[in-house]
Amino acid sequence: MSAALALQNLEKSFGGLRVTAAVNLAVEPGERRLIIGPNGAGKTTLFNLISGEIRPDGGAITLFDQDITRVPSRRRPHLGIARTYQIITLFPGETLLRNVTLSLLGLSRLRWNPFRQLERQAALLARARAALARVALDHLAERPLAQTAYGERRRVEIAMALAQDPKVLLLDEPFAGLSIDERRDVLQLVTAIPRDVTIVMIEHDMDVALDFAERITLLHFGEVVVDGTRGEVVAHPRTKEIYLGE
Amino acid sequence: MKRLALAAGLVGLATVPLWVGGTYYVNIASQILIYAVFALAINVLVGYAGLVTLGHAGLFGIAAYAGARLLNGGAGHLAVAAGSLALTLVAAGIFAALALRGTGLGFIMITVALGQIVWGIAYRWISITNGDNGVSIKERPNLLGLSLVAPAHFYWATFAVFLVALASMAIFVASPFGASLRGTRDQPRRMTALGHHVWMIRFLAFLFSGFWSGVAGLLYLYYNQFVSPHMVTLTASAEALLMVISGGTATLLGPTVGAALVVIMKNVASAYIERWNFVLGAIFVTIVIFMPEGLVPGTARLTRWAMAALRPRGAP
Which residues contact B143 (CB under 8 A, 6 or more apart)? Predict the structure, then answer.
């Protein structure tokens, strides 16, 4: 079976700083992959390379055997890649419903239509509400994002990504800044995502993330140091040395 | 309540020639509506796309110069409108392709440069533009058998165009494309990650804005029956931008109110106050201090605040 997402010798440098060093990675369809590593390991850069926000200096990225290395960032959601951000990146002046609607519009030809009223696009709005219901926020659909709590915004990020029915979902620290209860809620939410969605997650909170991960990749200074099943990586001496501690 | 106020406002505007008293004031009202269309066009970029432009007087002027040359070349009024607006759209496309290479200050500076190029052509390419002397036209058109020579008739024709502009803006803003445009203003990076073509959205918005700038320029030409480099100066662009900012960006009513403020100050207050520029500047400073969001949203905010303060305690 071909990999859902594969990186081959992916490289990226900013000036003299090598942030991604010949990274090889293969994520199987439906897999739950966790990317870990200390601060500055190049985890978010890796996500930015996969989502196309920055261009690699070398190597290749394939999505279900399709080479997407040179595909513009804006085209990648159309091919099935969705992502969330470590630093919440939403539309604070808009309602939750409008935030998710913008996500749906990104993949819809309707986004070019300057004549029809958005408020009357019942099917689109119903899908947006359904996406909010998946993260248990449908009751706040009409509330401006600026009037919601941090944890709710994290869930809006996930709702926006899920609304696009992605094949590969990149979650960049979805538990960052959340309380214990909120972490539990978000974990339940992520765990409930069906298996036809492949998930790659960056997370520092090992207590939460280990429950989720099937395979783990440890990055350090842009390189893959350890890669394997959850048990293999956790038990690996390099993981303890670099990341977990003794 | 809102609809009632809107209807009353529209009836008031539609009947201006009947109650304003005198040809001079009817002409001032026509000017306000022409600049309101221009300010609405700029508002598409400044308010909804977050792209501040200081070169739109160039597009305003291109339509007017093209209209004047076509009319003097013997073209009919319909051909003049079609030809000058088509040329303005081409120019807007070129402006957009160049200016959208930058954002923020870069965008502003490129629009300034493009506006200055148009001004330079208007001033120096004498065989086309007649330089500083400008180009005159002989007549205003007849519309549906109605001569637009009479100030009241011209006002009503301008009012009709203004209504179409306003309606098109309202539809545009409420559309999926309008929502996408606002998204590119607030989070361009996020919009790209969601699959939106940010550059193309901005480009199309620029064309839409350019089209209505051209319509306003053509109205200006018919109003004055004259066009000169004065119309395409940097000051003209800045003045139109101030109309948008003072009235309230990203609102439909704001640019109209801003246009009324500037035109009235320039034409009416200047008859009584020699240093009217100083007064206009003071008004802008006052607006920026007390209503930084602009007159229309600022007044709405203060009204809400006053209503809340006047409401008896304990009332829902």
Answer: B153, B157
* A117 with B174: Cβ contact below 8 A: yes
CATH code assigned to A1-80+166-246? 3.40.50.300
Q: How many helices (H) and strands (E) does chain A have?
A: 9, 10
B300's tokens: 């709405």
For residue A53, the 8-state DSSP code is: S
Find all residues with CB under 8 Å of B104, minimum gap 6, and list them: none
Element containing residue A32 per DSSP (H, E):
strand A32-36
DSSP string, A185-207: HHHHHHHTS-TTSEEEEE-S-HH
Q: Do residues B222 and B140 make contact, with C-beta atoms less than 8 angstroms apart?
A: yes
Provide ipTM, 2 decimals. Answer: 0.94
Which token pair is A71? 């595909």
Helices (H) and strands (E) in chain B, counts: 16, 4
Instruction: Indicate the pairing of strand A32-36 with strand A215-220.
Output: parallel
pLDDT in tens, B59-112: 999 999 999 999 999 999 999 999 999 999 999 999 999 999 999 999 999 999
Domain ranges of chain A: 1-80+166-246, 91-164
Phi-psi region of B249 (alpha: psi -120 to 50; beta: other; left: phi over 0): beta
* DSSP at B312: P
Closest partner CB to A119 (pick from B174, B183, B194) = B174
Q: Which helix (H) or strand (E) holds B2?
A: helix B2-14
Q: Which residue has the tokens 């009632």?
A: B4
Give the three-class secondary structure for A16.
coil
Whether pLDDT at B174 is above 90: yes
Residues of A within 8 A of B178 (CB-CB) are 114, 118
Tens of pLDDT, residue by residue over B25-67, are: 999 999 999 999 999 999 999 999 999 999 999 999 999 999 9
Angle between helices B151-174 and B23-43 (to 10 degrees): 20
The minimum CA-CA distance between B165 and chain A, rounded to whole Å, is 14
User: Is A33 within 8 Å of A200 (Cβ atoms)?
Assistant: yes
| Residues near A218 by beta carbon (within 8 Å), at least 6 away in sequence | A36, A37, A224, A225, A226, A227, A233, A236, A238, A239, A242, A243
How many contacts does A have with B, using Cβ atoms within 8 A? 89
pLDDT reading at B316 higher than 60: no
Beta bridge partners of A200: A33, A170
The amino acid that residue A205 corresponds to is: D
pTM of the model: 0.94
Q: What gap in Å lies between CA A171 and CA A151, rounded to an integer?
A: 15
- CATH class, domain B25-310, is mainly alpha
Which residues does chain A have within 8 Å of residue B195's beta carbon, measured at their own beta carbons?
Answer: 74-78, 106-107, 164
Cβ distance of B195 and A74 shorter than 8 Å: yes
The full set of domain ranges for chain B reads 25-310
Q: Lay out the sheet containing A17-27: strands in order across.
A: A17-27, A5-14, A58-63, A66-67
